[in-house]
Design goal:
Distance between the termini: 63 Å
Order of helices and strands: HHHHH
Largest sheet: none
Oligomer: single chain
Structural class: mainly alpha
Number of helices: 5
Helix content: over 70%
Strand content: under 5%
Radius of gyration: 30 Å
């Protein structure tokens, strides 16, 4: 009985695992705020809040209910501060999205390299010439790029 070391399967890194390691409590909070701020519920709550604020401060409920008379300086300051914080949360979330896209691109690249190496080894085992295959791939890519750029020649009829 041979005691040769077992070979393990290639380590495949999953995007969610990498992203979970990058995501801290502050990131989760920023994502939650940004997600809520991008809903219609957020819009409705603000519309209601502004309406109540303006109605109260116009004296509709009596002079005792006025705490921020027209031109609503306190409301303006609160809304300005909220806009500053919300824009910051959006930028934080956008930065995290950019980091996610970088992780995905790196993992895609690794997957592509792994696939190419496997394809070459399988092709060689089957007796396929990798240089011939690569020439055909390059021809197809050139033809496809020409089509995308609108400079493709119509196919020749034989």
């Amino acid at each position: 009985m041979s005691t040769s070391p077992k070979r393990s399967a290639p380590l495949i890194v999953h995007e969610q695992d990498v992203l979970a390691q990058l995501r801290g409590t502050q990131d989760r909070i920023a994502d939650a705020i940004t997600a809520f701020a991008g809903t219609m519920t957020f819009v409705y709550l603000h519309a209601l809040w502004f309406a109540v604020w303006i109605v109260c401060n116009e004296g509709v409920l009596g002079k005792g209910a006025i705490w921020d008379p027209f031109p609503f300086g306190l409301l303006t300051m609160i809304v300005s501060l909220e806009a500053i914080f919300l824009s910051t949360f959006v930028m934080v979330s956008q930065n995290r999205q950019a980091a996610r896209e970088n992780v995905r691109a790196d993992l895609d690249f690794e997957t592509n390299v792994r696939s190419e190496v496997w394809s070459i080894h399988i092709g060689r085992a089957l007796g396929v010439d990798p240089l011939e295959v690569e020439k055909r791939v390059q021809d197809l890519l050139t033809e496809n790029r020409a089509r995308m750029n609108g400079t493709a020649q119509p196919p020749k009829e034989t």
